[in-house]
Fold this sequence. Notes:
About 25% of the residues lie in helices and about 25% in strands. It is α/β, with parallel strands linked by helices.
Amino acid sequence: MKRIVVLGAGFAGLIAAIGAARKLAELKIAQSEASVTVLNRDRWHAIRVRNYETDLSEVRVPLGDVLAPIGVDLAVGEMTGLDCERREIAYTAEGRPFSLSYDRLVFALGSELARPPIPGLAEYGFDIDTYDAAEKLAAHLTALPRRPDEPGRFTALVVGGGLTGVEAATELASRLPEIAAGGPARVIVADRAARIGSNMGDGACAVIAEALAALGVETRTGVTIAAIDRQGVVLSSGERIAAATVVWCGGMRAHPLAAAVPGEHDGFGRIAVDRFLKVPGDHGVFAAGDCAAALVDGEHASVMSCQHARPMGRIAGHNVVCDLIGETPIPIDIGYYVTILDLGAWGAVYTEGWDRKVAVTGAAAKETKRLINQQRIYPPRSRDPAEILAAAAPVTQAPPPQIHERR
Ligand SMILES: Cc1cc2nc3c(=O)[nH]c(=O)nc-3n(C[C@H](O)[C@H](O)[C@H](O)COP(=O)(O)OP(=O)(O)OC[C@H]3O[C@@H](n4cnc5c(N)ncnc54)[C@H](O)[C@@H]3O)c2cc1C
């Protein structure tokens, strides 16, 4: 009996596990001959990209609804170690240590928010990296009206003007005034770069600037954070901002356990994989999603995004079975790159191509963003095995629609 283990049930891991089960079913290989097991820290598939949204009620899908109907086993626990020579995984569940052995592995533990040692960040900073963190921020925001009426009670400072920070700030621009119920509310976004959203390219940057201005979001650029305390922050410029809410959006790094996989790692700690998502060498390890770096079209390196994590997962799931049975694997080949950034009540911006040309803005782009966040990136929730398996066929989805007309 052969065992395929998938580490992580996020965008890459869940679809990799389904993809492996799909390929085994296609080959009519019985579960008694080859099994698929997913190890995840909890029982949820987190739609992590939605953590900036106000309503978190639909941002998690029970893994059992997707995995049980297709016969994939779920182990719930916190992975703590990996020995690629012995092909063994160490994890803990309910405080007890366990181990899991494998014949083939898909490493898909994703990424984590980078947390530099800024004084006060760990104690007073919030973030939206995980569902738990987003819930903690939501509870804090809801409780603000019950706090003493001090300066900065309804001020939120978002640190990091990348994609996550801009989405957080533009959403807070509507959410905080509602919580303040007529009181003075301020949202500020700060970044060390000269412009907010600078990695989105010049065209999108101008759109972001327009949206921030229209929403009344203040900006601080060319600054870093010197320290955070209960009352607010001190910027590197010396400015003190009273803010009860500081949301840290300082960029992502590959999961630290990616370092346990032999071979090359890039500057983000991502595991270098070939076009088949395989880690070079003879360890039987594949990697996909934020913890892996692959050339997605033979030229461009994958970007930490669910846009790349999902097709990488599909291909890794398919290929891990090919590797097990000696069939020719399929290379990843994603022929397009788009970005759709939510800009709160102002709308969104949809860019096309690796040079990020602005294609659609405002309410029309927001329609596409809603379609992505609420439908396109969800696994089937029908519990229908055929529908679930079909969702992991090793093909790339067409780009999201560009909706130009306002309806
Ligand atoms: C607020 C926010 C907005 C974003 N917006 C966008 C966007 O608009 N577009 C886009 O393309 N991308 C966006 N991203 C990035 C996107 O969420 C990631 O690129 C994507 O989640 C990567 O998928 P993954 O499967 O590699 O990792 P994840 O989805 O993070 O999955 C990792 C899985 O591993 C599990 N895990 C981690 N550590 C352990 C452990 N030690 N033991 C057991 N299980 C573990 C986790 O529970 C999780 O299930 C956004 C991210 C955030 C935080």
